[in-house]
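Data availability (excerpt). The following record was deposited with the supplementary files.
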Amino acid sequence: MSKEFKAPTYFLRPHWVYFSLFFIAVIHVLASLIEVRPGIQLVINSLSCLYVGAMSTSKIKFNKQKNSLEKVEREQTEEKMTQKDALQFPLYLSCYLFGLYTLFKYIDERLVAAALTLFFSFLGCLCLMGIIEDAIERLFPIEFSTEIIIEKKYSINLVFTKKDFEIKLTKMNILSFALTLLPLGYYLSTKSWICNNIFGIAFSIQGVANFNVIPNFKIAYLMLWGLFFYDIFWVFGTDVMVTVAKLADAPIKLQFPFQILEDGVLIQKYSMLGLGDIVVPGIFVSMCLQFDVDRQIKKARSLNDIDIGYFTWCFIGYIIGILATLSSMIIFNHPQPALLFLVPGCTLSVLIKAFLNKQLPEFWAYDQEKKPELEVEKNKAT
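Predicted structure:
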């Protein structure tokens, strides 16, 4: 009896996805061997992570029966974000950030850092497991990824309630977890910057690929512009964000090594980029890609038939934003709130695109839950 394997799915621009992954690997190898300017590392890693994560949100499969392309739908387990949620999101993050800052101030820094390291290393492992499973699951029969071999149920008695949860593991889960143990063990024992970045990159890609609770662009704009002011306040108005970023020795940031000369001795230090500066704008960039796909998927006969104009404009806006961030860091020699540049770059670029294409009403009407099939103009504006 022949084994059944999962049908193949495709990135819209597979070559660029593989190039991005190649660039990530190469820049880390080079930075470990020779001196590579941290700005170059920052740009290559941020752009590559965002590109791969965004492309992962709109994978395509071929339906042989209908002889047509279909978008791979993602599982939706969480409730969609509302306008109220979008407005409150920066407040929740502020409470979380200030809470960490308070812990660092009044509790032993080593204990707080150790707790954060364990927590975010666990999250990083889960994200890395997801990437590994997505990469290798088609090498194995379907039951390897679907058949539950370990199932445990647990109950936790809290103060006013009882929380039940269960753990279900497949052979694929166990294999992917085993593969993450090597970088995890090496990171916990050495705090290697490369292992830190492995988990950070996995978190960034999976964060962009799986954060699908924003239903439309109106909610997205509310959230992004709220975070725009959040970032400015906590970086320029206080020392809170910079302090937490420096003291939180955990894979919640990407690190870029460089050497400086102090008292005649070369000392290795690290520049850094918070994962939120990839994930937050990356969620919006991925929405633009989904807008492109949902408008055209029914009429497309090949991957190249799908024009990704809105994604391209938004991605270029991110490039401009990250270069502006890097430039301001060099000019002012001070940490900069990246969202100050990234949010306008991403959100304004696609508004200009929609205006030039005379598609502003369609752009604002787009809803991921309803997925209207909007007409694509024959003469596309560039």
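Summary of structural features: Residues 80 and 213 are 4 Å apart (CA to CA).
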